[in-house]
Amino acid sequence: MKNYDVIIVGAGPGGIYSAYELMKLAPDLKVAVYEKGHTLTQRRCPIDGDKIKECINCKTCAIMSGFGGAGAFSDGKYNITNDFGGTLYEYIGKKKAMDLMNYVDQINLEHGGAGTKLYSTADTRFKRICIQNGLHLLDASVRHLGTDINYIVLGHLYDELKDKVEFYFDTPVETVKKDENGGFTVFTKKEGEAHCSQCIVSVGRSGSSWMEDVCRDLEIPTSSNRVDIGVRVELPAVVFKDITDELYEGKIVYRTNNYEDLVRTFCMNPRGAVVTENTNGIITVNGHSYENPELQTENTNFALLVAKHFSEPFSDSNGYGESIARLSNMLGGGVMVQRFGDLIRGRRSTEKRIREGLVVPTLSATPGDLSLVLPKRILDGIIEMIYALDKIAPGTANSDTLLYGVEVKFYNMEVKIDNHLETMHKGLYVIGDGSGVTHSLSHASASGVYVARRIAGAEAD
Ligand SMILES: Cc1cc2nc3c(=O)[nH]c(=O)nc-3n(C[C@H](O)[C@H](O)[C@H](O)COP(=O)(O)OP(=O)(O)OC[C@H]3O[C@@H](n4cnc5c(N)ncnc54)[C@H](O)[C@@H]3O)c2cc1C
Q1: Which of 20, 76, 269, 285 could form a disulfide with 145 if both were Cys (CB 3.0 to 4.6 A apart)?
Q2: How far apart are the CA of 424 and the centre of ligand 1, in A?
Q3: Does the structure show a pLDDT above 80 at 417?
Q4: 327-344 pLDDT, tens per residue?
Q5: Pocket probe mutation, ligand 1, options 175, 196, 205, 289, max atoms within 8 Å of Cβ
């Protein structure tokens, strides 16, 4: 049986930064990373828009899995803030969380990210303009790597790690068992069993059901009560130009008059493209953009999301989100698109209406009627917020603004871990999005660095 000091499950940002920090601080430790997806260079989604137009449900999704995790083809926006992106600060404290996110930023700069722009929302004139219009702009610094530079950074990190850490790609871990004599055994079909003294589990959102099984087997308590549901808005880039030129991404929150629900903008992609996302066979919508001007589009896209928190006896918040996404998949055969003007007039969009509109869609989606998919309360909140945004970015509520549905932000169940991100089983850490504690590149990466430092003895009790 193979024997390691540390086994890391998952090569997303959480796993990569754990490995990186262990390599730096404890080079004598024998470290292995098991990843169910491919190497970075082998990751390729088969959708080419020509022969393959829709998701064909590959065995492992090249967008979500492989070196770089879900973040590999993301927009590479590292939000350095405790205001959103996760609740890591509740475990390790606000200052430490910020320090670690800044440290990750430095590593990114040293590995190909130098020259990319760092935006900041603090003390900007938009904060005032937002407040004057009933909107709240959250504070954050945002490093925008862009999909292209993000890929380069990942490539450099892999080059530095590959001779010091043992990587096993295309090797999903089946189970993790606690050994009687201490440590853990990791089981894989491809590589057999491996033993380790300490195990870092960083399986992200794509590993959520697997994580549930592991927690059940090891009797680690979990909880789950939140899902965010909404649409992706696409409009001419000039409409949001003032905001995106100055802030790159404005995280704006609005409290609706009708129900006092919170609606927020999420994942803003100036001059970007709308894309589909496949989570466990369910097609939802997302977006990204490139730093390279040649790859940019005429449109900006962002999500408008409404958070749903459930209370007893209901506990399957992700199941609720999946059902709504399935409904849109059923009606639209995938993602659905509707003009805002059609939604307000209570009619479906058609190919003709979309074609005649002034916004050229960047994603080929089925024209339809989102009011048949989204619950009224959620849709009402989104419409209210579009009118509120229209006051700070006139044109947002134009009839031709496109709404793609549905966008669902699933939250992993929260795994019970202590302030050191360690489970009740000593030496078993759960980090990144798979822990339910983080929901972003910067928080997931920071959690990886934190645990690595602790294992290396560089983090005090
Ligand atoms: C299209 C898209 C765009 C995004 N854009 C941004 C953005 O701009 N900014 C931002 O902050 N966040 C963004 N995100 C979210 C961000 O990518 C995640 O928050 C981040 O990647 C989480 O890191 P992680 O390491 O926790 O998990 P992941 O990145 O999900 O990595 C987990 C890895 O574990 C592997 N794995 C799972 N189960 C197993 C198993 N049983 N055995 C072995 N390996 C396993 C997976 O294959 C995966 O590679 C985006 C996400 C998507 C999908």
Answers
A1: 76
A2: 24
A3: yes
A4: 999 998 889 999 999 999
A5: 205
Whole-number Å distance between alpha carbons of 381 and 194: 50
pLDDT in tens, 235-278: 999 999 999 998 888 899 999 998 999 999 999 999 999 999 88
Give one DSSP letter per residue of 111-178, joined into a string: IIITT-EEEE-TT-HHHHHHHHTTEEEPP-EEEE-HHHHHHHHHHHHHHHHTTTSEEE-S--EEEEEE
Residue of the CA atom closest to atom 1 of ligand 1: 74
Is 47 or 132 the better-scoring residue by pLDDT? 132
Helical pair 94-108 and 13-25, crossing angle rounded to 10 deg: 90
Exposure string of 39-48, with b = 16+ CB inside 10 Å and e = fewer, is bbeebebebe
Task: Point out the ligand 1 atom lying closest to the alpha carbon of residue 173.
Answer: 42
359, 364, 369, 371 alpha-carbon torsion, rounded to 10°: -90
In the numeric block, the tokens 């972003």 are attached to 440
Residue 234, both tokens:
């696409």
CB 173 less than 6 A from any atom of ligand 1: yes
Rounded to 5, what percent of the chain is helix, strand, coil? 35, 25, 40
Section 37-65 average pLDDT: 87
Pick the atom of ligand 1 nearest to 15's CA: 25
Please name the residues in contact with 316: beta carbons below 8 A apart, sequence gap of 6 or more. Answer: 224
Ligand 1 atom 5, closest CA: 74
Is the backbone of residue 192 left (phi > 0), alpha (psi -120 to 50) or beta? left
Helix (H/G/I), strand (E/B), else coil: 184:
strand
Provide the pLDDT for residue 100: 98
